[in-house]
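DM from R.C. (forwarded with permission)

"hey, sorry to bug you on a friday — could you get me a structure for this? deadline for the figure draft is monday and I only need the backbone to look sensible"
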Amino acid sequence: MSALYGTYARSNLAFERGEGVRLYAQDGTEYLDFHAGVAVNALGHGDPHMVAALKAAADRVWHTANTFTIPEQERLGQRLVEHTFADACFFTNSGTEAVECAVKTARHYFWAKGQVDRYEIIAFTGSFHGRTMGMIAASGNEHYLEGFGPPLAGFVHLDPNDLAAVEQAITPNTAAILVEPVQGEGGCTEMTGDFMRGLRALCDKHGMLLILDEVQCGYGRTGKFFAHEWTGIEPDIMAVAKGIGAGFPLGACLAKGEVAKSMVPGTHGSTYGGNPLACAIGNAVLDRMLAPGFFEQVDHVGQRLKWHLQQLAQRFPHQVLELRGRGLLAGIRIAAPVKEVVARLRDEQHMLAMTANENVLRLLPPLVVTEADIEEAMAKLAAVFEQIEAEKATA
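My reply, with the result:
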């Protein structure tokens, strides 16, 4: 019996090495990776620049407390400020910590202004913001709350893409709106451009803050640095993680200067967040992603993935019920049980994919995926759908 908590329905499959969009099991079997460690391995496996950066960082200081200046952290923070809406950032170890920091920043901003009762946050059903007690309360999924006692107060959940409902829910206590531009866990649901622009307008009208959770949909996954760029708006606060470290634990909360200025010494902290080793990796990721043409290439292959999925839907209309998502965060709502399809892909086709809510098959390949890789993935999906249809015909 494993000594680990039984919180994961683990496969017995274990990997020992990877290269690009391929993973290799302990017995040498090759797998096509359209899972990417839940959208984490943005640059695939074994990227030479990332490996070199890690090896170089390992020969220097791994960790110092945030009571000292950390040059790699200062550099990473400055680069993120230069390429985003933000004026300041706080580094974390994970996405849930990044969203926690975003919520704390929003609430503290109003507290510092003397508006102590202004702490409520509008969030959305189907959302997923992490596993801490605060973030299971923020997430719009009752399942994550079961068994953990009363949820943290101050969150109101509405259906996504319903702007009228949001406007009606605003009260004098409303501090912020928290939204994923593209939901991942919730079923790859994309917020419409009109909805996102409407949220920005409501925040401006009522003096509220717009918080974006781009932990999964950010860092190039939709074909731009961050997904909100497609809608032409800017948030006041944004949480990022996953791709920011491309496999190394790292996250960040980015904020406009006026919003962040109340977060003075003692208001928040992290022992490991933004340590030298993590930020050396974070800077290596930016070296690759900010190179000319990187996001344009991701956008191109994302459009090709969408086209191939449309062809798959035409070929299997009884299996593919709806296409969702954006770019390389793609969802397929399917007829067959999604867990069964994921298992068949893994065990029979040697392809890794993920589930999402609403019986959605989630495809999250590394951003370095090629169209040839996509065509291979579509062939594997087609083989599974063909097998399911053949079994139904003979049942």
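R.C.: lifesaver. The first strand starts at residue 15 and ends at 19.
me: no worries. The mean pLDDT is 97.
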